[in-house]
Design a protein that fits this description.
The protein has 401 residues and is mostly helical. 76% of the residues lie in helices and 0% in strands. Among the domains are: 152-219, Serine Threonine Protein Phosphatase 5, Tetratricopeptide repeat; 295-398, Serine Threonine Protein Phosphatase 5, Tetratricopeptide repeat (Alpha Horseshoe), CATH 1.25.40.10. Helix 5 runs antiparallel to helix 6 (105-116) and helix 10 runs antiparallel to helix 11 (188-200).
């Protein structure tokens, strides 16, 4: 009898701990959504209810940044002090900002010096442009601090490359990064930056090669894994992209964007049920996100849930006549052979946004079905000009006399 009672007690404790952990997770996801929507007060309230014994560094970071954005600098400091031995770079620069805001210049400069001695310090330009330090930039100690060369030659080259990239000077950036890599073949950041340039230039082969090197040199870097997934998608290596998004979600399971991107990859693998699950998960915490509802409708159309999608799209269009909503409803009508309604919606989308290449592409496809070759070729040619490369093959097949 005592044994049964003991087992029952353990079971109740298990259920209680499980429900508590679920509650904490719900609060974290909800707080993340609030942060994304810049509702710092709401996020702070939720974070204040989260008690994980200060184990999760990412949660502590979010708590600290939320408090900082609310102007609660003393409370932010308490959180940041917990991180000094775990993530010195992040903690030291943000402690410096907090103390600067509190006009405690000596402590602000001491933590700034500690940050400049850390491994992953921010660039000199970003620190000097930081508005939090406006009150101490005329301080003699601030000027003395910058008499020392805190940055290595490689770090300076990396920052120059970032400057070139920001100003769309890709040739100069590539030359800079090639030079950096030739001198330091283990510079994972240089490989990452060069991969990002190749990605923008649509040179996915070289981008893939460089991001793979960067990821091997610096394991589990979220920025590197994300770019690797994006490149894999462009190369139609959807299984590889999915692996990267799954790894990202193991590292940071509270990032809504990873779920949205994974859903997109599932859809390319025609796994629309899993795609909808990811979007539904995000909508659970971001219930008024109409863009997510539109994305879900697209997946429902491909899954054959056209009636559910139509209800959602009609509701979205009634609230806001966004061209993307007309485009999605047009896709629904086209899939269900309601050609006239599809044509009307695609045309409506273009009326609202004349640069919406996908709408021209769909109009071209509909015109071919209607055997209106002249209109079809016009729409397809326009779609190509607007960057819809899928239209090329259709155009060459049907419009080359």
């Amino acid at each position: 009898m005592k044994t049964k009672q003991y087992i029952f007690t353990l079971f109740i404790l298990f259920l209680w701990n499980f429900s508590m952990s679920q509650s904490i997770e719900d609060k974290i996801f909800a707080a993340e959504t609030m942060l994304k929507n810049k509702d710092f007060a709401g996020a702070a309230n939720l974070y204040s209810e989260i008690n994980d014994n200060q184990k999760n560094n990412e949660i502590i970071k979010k708590q600290a940044l939320t408090l900082y954005n609310l102007g609660k600098y003393s409370e932010a400091i308490k959180k940041l002090e917990l991180l000094l031995n775990r993530d010195e770079s992040f903690a030291s620069i943000n402690l410096s900002r907090c103390y600067a805001k509190l006009n405690e210049n000596e402590k602000a400069l001491a933590y700034l010096k500690q940050h400049l001695q850390s491994r992953n310090k921010e660039s000199e330009a970003s620190i000097k442009l930081e508005t939090a330090f406006n009150q101490i930039k005329n301080d003699e100690e601030w000027k003395k601090l910058w008499l020392k060369d805190w940055y290595t030659e490689q770090e300076i080259e990396i920052e120059e490359a970032k400057y070139y990239i920001k100003n769309n000077k890709n040739i100069e950036a590539l030359e800079n990064l090639d030079n950096c890599i030739s001198k330091n073949p283990n510079s994972h950041e240089a490989f990452y930056l060069r991969a990002s340039i190749f990605y923008e230039l649509q040179d996915y082969k070289n981008a893939s090669k460089d991001i793979k090197t960067a990821s091997n040199l610096e394991k589990n870097n979220k920025s590197y894994l994300f770019l690797q997934a994006e490149i894999a998608n462009k190369q139609k290596k959807y299984t590889l992209a999915l692996e990267n998004y799954n790894l990202l979600l193991k590292i940071d399971k509270y990032n809504q964007n990873y779920y949205i991107k994974r859903a997109e990859t599932y859809s390319k693998l025609e796994n629309y049920s899993s795609a909808i699950e990811d979007i539904d998960f995000c909508l659970k915490y971001d219930t008024e996100n109409n863009e997510l509802k539109n994305i879900k409708a697209k997946y429902q159309i491909n899954l054959g849930e056209t009636w559910e999608a139509l209800i959602t799209l009609n509701q979205l269009i009634a609230k806001d006549s966004k061209p993307d909503y007309f485009l999605t409803r047009g896709l629904l009508y086209a899939k269900t052979n309601n050609t006239q309604l599809a044509f009307k919606d695609f045309s409506q989308a273009i009326d609202y946004d004349p640069t919406l290449g996908e709408a021209y592409f769909q109009l071209g496809l509909l015109s071919l079905i209607e055997k209106n070759k002249e209109s079809a070729c016009y729409y397809l040619k326009t779609a190509i000009k607007l960057g819809i490369y899928e239209a090329n093959e259709v155009f060459e097949k049907n419009c080359q006399d």
